[in-house]
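Contributing new records

If you add data, match the layout below exactly. Sequence lines come first and carry their own label; structure lines follow with theirs. Keep one chain per record. Anything else will be rejected by the validation script.
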Amino acid sequence: MATQRDAVPLDTVAALAASDAGGLDVALLGSFLHVLTDAVDAGVPLRRKQLREFRAQGDAAARAGVALRALLDLYLSSAWRLWRELPAVAAAAEDPSGVVTAGEVMLRAVDDAVAELAEGYQLARRTLVRAEVLARREFVDDLLSGTSDVAGVLGRAQAFGLDLSSPHAVAVVTSTTPFTDASSAIGLVERTVQGSKGDAELLVATKQDRLILVFPAPDLDAVDHVLTRVGRALGTPALASNESVDLRRAGEYGRTQIGVGRARGGAVGVAASYREALDALELASALGLDAPVVDARDLLVYRVLISDRAAIADLVDTLLTPLLVARGGAGPLLETLQVYFDTGANSASTARRMHLSVRAVTYRLSRIKDLTGQDVGNPVEAFALHTAVLGAMLLDWPSTRLSS
């Protein structure tokens, strides 16, 4: 003898509900319609074992990439479509009270089932998000470290929207406010650089409290475009140039500075560009450069200087050590040389920047000649002095004693 459940067109109900939900697979319903029909027929709530199935269905749907709204639509649509097919509803004229009981049981069953479904879905999504974050973090670490598994990095790069066969550059943003994975700056920079279409190839991540950008750099204009938009996103007017800057954002991410490496192709090239960006920031710190952007290309001469530390230390020791015997130590005279060379060997500009008279500056330069034997008016000797001053800044001399 056919049961009441057999008399209900469950397959038809499921198919119509799946259509309501945008064409989802009816398999996502599992045994929902069957247990719901049985519960209403028996007048009892769903059992714990039955509810566990729906938590598993929510988990499976999340892992399959089904949207939660569509999943809930599938279940709720199937429930209201099932209602009119239930025997108790069909017999409402003969037994009105049966409809009330059936409604109470059904509403409770649907509520319990959907709650378990959503819980399973959300738990699965949290797990998937954690896995995605971990995978992204591992990829960024491997990419920037220059891992030996180049082929593996190139393969994984596609999943993150990067085609590393073309030249890419790396920009590293430091700030007085550390950047974290939860920083709003990540999404803001992505949206600002990519624009409204969001189709630009770009990877934004954090590493050691810094913001890291990996982006295509076919030419210098492309690099300038990205840096300008990063400045706009972080509220740095000096970087935003002709862009409109929302001044209300200024300072939200602290005082920032961007180091950018040269563009190169391949995963190895990205790692090299990243190291250059870090070196540029380190050199800027040593040299006291506070420019919003420090480009590795502009600092190549300094890298040459520190590539032979022993030689530059010898130059500093030979040319600048005599300044230590000056009244007040080497500091004032060394600062005068720094500003003098920074201003293009202009005594008047040096005086204005140091809040001194031109006569005082001239006296100090003369004193430097007396102590070192080097005349800033002689191009060859001025070059030697300038190089020694840069070396002193890089080596933090005279605060740090040089080894003999």
